[in-house]
Amino acid sequence: MRTAKLWRIISAEPGVALPAAFGVLLVVSILVTITMTSALSASRSSNQDNASKRALGAAEAGLQVARARLAGLRPSSSQCLTDRPVAPSGSQCPGLLDQDLGNGARYSYWVTDTAQAAQCGGSPAAGERCITALGTIAGVKRRVQARVKGTVPPNPLFPVAGILAIDGATLGNGFAGDNKNLPAPLLINGELASDRTIRLGNGDVIGGGCRVSSPNGSVIDSTNSNSTSTCQTISGITPTFKSGLPGVDTLGFQPSFVSNRNETGISWQNPGVGAWTYTAGTKSGNYPTGPTRSLATTQTGARLILRGGDYNLCNLNLANGGELLIPAGEIVRLFLDSYARKTPAVRACPGSGRKGGLNPQPLYLSNRGSLNPAWSGNSSPGPAQLQIFVYGEPGNTSTNNPLTPSTKLNFENSNVVNAMIFAPWSETQTWNDMTWNGALTTQIFSPKNNMTFTYGNDTTGGGGGTGASYQQKLWRECKPSPSIPADPETGC
Fold first, then answer.
1. Which of 2-6, 8-12, 248-252, 450-454 shows the highest mean pLDDT?
2. Sign of the four-CA dihedral 116, 377, 485, 482
3. Which of these, 109, 160, 249, 434, is most buried using a 10 Å CB contact count?
4. SS3 annotation, 372-423
């Protein structure tokens, strides 16, 4: 009896449901927690993967921006590149840092000079460089590196690596002024070429040699036995240099007047607006006319900044040490009109004003007047930053002689010029202590006494050229951070 009652008590089930329910809930909670943890982990992994892909895209964008700027700005072999050509800092090149791409993506890049090309397996002698770019988004970093090599196609405006004097060059003696006891070379670090006669004076040095075409080209060395003139001559070149030259009008001369920056791009500098005079132009149809559009200094040492863009003038006069300044990374194209232009029938510019003659003088510098010198806003000005195109017309002079230049460019006494000048119907005359870095195509070249001309390494892509291009020779991904923090090219 007692045994049966005990069995009934033991076998009864009241209160079992609650513990069972808690057990089921515990199991479900554990499963839900596992599921949520897996989902959150997958979400984090997905977000991380998405951020990583976007960071890689940002790095690649930075690399391509750097490559495009290399082609456009054409730094010299010894220069690095940020948003402008810059010198190395110590043994490293500075970078362009933390550039915004939008939506939280940013990039930085570092571009070496050619001397550091070996850091990405390149050859300094081949002109190769390394570009290292970093992309970041939401704290995720990706780095890539490329080795690139620049190529610059020939420029039809400047077909020689130096000076082309189409109808002849007469060089003065390499002395300081008229004092023959103070030798100061007339030095051309580049080529001197012509379709006609090149006449050398005492003490002249043509580092790249003389090139003359047939049938009329020749070199006359008028030096005496004590001369140090040198010019290794290459003659008989065909066709003539002149035959391959385009006209100034093919370079957009008319549009340069219609949409120029003559007024909006001029920034007056020390000592102020009163140091310069500017007169605006009028137009007939879409062509500039009238004896105006002149820009001239009125005070000693006046400085003027020209922002990047096209300008169209009749006359630029930098007397009394005036300086024309260009900000780093910007390019100015300056078109100098001429009275010799027959279209339209109204003369575009006045037909007087040249010192010592009847032809106009659209460009005049004197007493240390400078074009594109170094200044605080551009410590390393390149000649392709200032491109000057001078209009003219063959034979449209008082003598109607096609060998007589219709305009004259005059540089007097201690001028500094970083520019490329295309003036195929002009005489270019320089006087004492001239320093010129760039390229020149002119009709007649007549330097007097000492000067130093250096062919600029960035000139071939400017003006009428098609620009440089940088071919990618290698691409690789790097570790997120350089192995040597001070050396951005390491860790690849």
1. 450-454
2. negative
3. 109
4. CCCECCECCCCHHHEEEEECCCCCCCCCCCCCCCCEEEEEECCCEEEEEEEE
Enter the tokens of residue 422.
């295309």
Q: What is the pLDDT of residues 391-410, one digit of tens each?
A: 876 655 555 567 778 788 99
CA distance 158 to 39: 66
Which residue reads 């070379």 in tokens? 185
The torsion angles phi and psi of 453, rounded to 5 degrees, stand at: -115, 130
How far is it, in rounded angstroms, from Cα 173 to Cα 185?
8
Q: How far apart are CA 255 and CA 21, in angstroms?
A: 87
Measure the CA angle with vertex 460, ends 189 and 168; round to 5°. 55
Joined tokens for residue 56: 């890689």
Rounded CA-CA distance 431/49 in Å is 66
- Per-residue H/E/C for 280-343: CCEEECCEEECCCCEEEECCCCCEEEECCEEEEECEEEECCCCEEECCCCCCEEEEECCCCCCC
Residues 380, 374: Cα–Cα separation, whole Å: 6
Q: Looking at the predicted structure, is the pLDDT value of residue 359 above 70?
A: no
* CA pair distance 96, 330, nearest whole angstrom: 17
∠ CA 473-151-389, rounded to 5°? 155
DSSP 366: E
Q: What is the pLDDT of residues 188-219, one digit of tens each?
A: 888 899 999 998 887 788 888 888 888 888 88
CA–CA separation, 254 and 245 (whole Å): 19
Q: Is the peptide bond before 271 cis (omega within 30 degrees of 0)?
A: yes
Rounded Cα distance between 262 and 184, Å, is 39
User: How many other CB atoms sit within 10 Å of the CB of residue 280?
Assistant: 10
